[in-house]
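Bench log, entry 3. Co-assembly request; chain sequences pasted below exactly as received.
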Amino acid sequence: DTEVTQTPKHLVMGMTNKKSLKCEQHMGHRAMYWYKQKAKKPPELMFVYSYEKLSINESVPSRFSPECPNSSLLNLHLHALQPEDSALYLCASSQDSGTEAFFGQGTRLTVV
Amino acid sequence: EDQVTQSPEALRLQEGESSSLNCSYTVSGLRGLFWYRQDPGKGPEFLFTLYSAGEEKEKERLKATLTKKESFLHITAPKPEDSATYLCAVQAGGGYNKLIFGAGTRLAVHP
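Structure output for the full assembly:
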């Protein structure tokens, strides 16, 4: 099973709202990722967790706050977003560095 | 600076018309090169991993190859259901779990 599950599938939020995106994998993978993808563009890396510790933060604004409660779960907390933050947010996981990453189906986020 | 360039940007084929997609890369210490397929509004679907020059992988109508500077995704006798965006990504050395994606090739296969 190579499934990464993301919830919700769609999210509409106002600029003053606080919401969270959730990601879960049960493949025993030790690296988990958040990517942001705009229309007709490739995914852009936001955060990497390795062995439940944040190892990469690609200079993402503080209105995005990642959390890794355990080795199977990854959250992305959202607060005071801007309309330009509207995008497809993808979670991925991999066994370790240098191995293939498996992606979830994404959360389509719209900020109004 | 690590860089991945895919060509062509878009490709239109007739059903059964074989072709190849290109992914050229400049990276310090390649740890792996990955091919993904992405359908509109969905997450990328993993296809292949290549680690060293000369390596080849096959799956149904797709075959991926790797040299020291580029990778090719060959599509043999494509069908309309092969229509998608094909993404190439590389992981560089340095112990970081960071995938660098190319911009992708949008493939349309017409009956």
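Chain B touches chain A through 22 residues (CB under 8 Å). The two ends of chain B are 41 Å apart (CA to CA).
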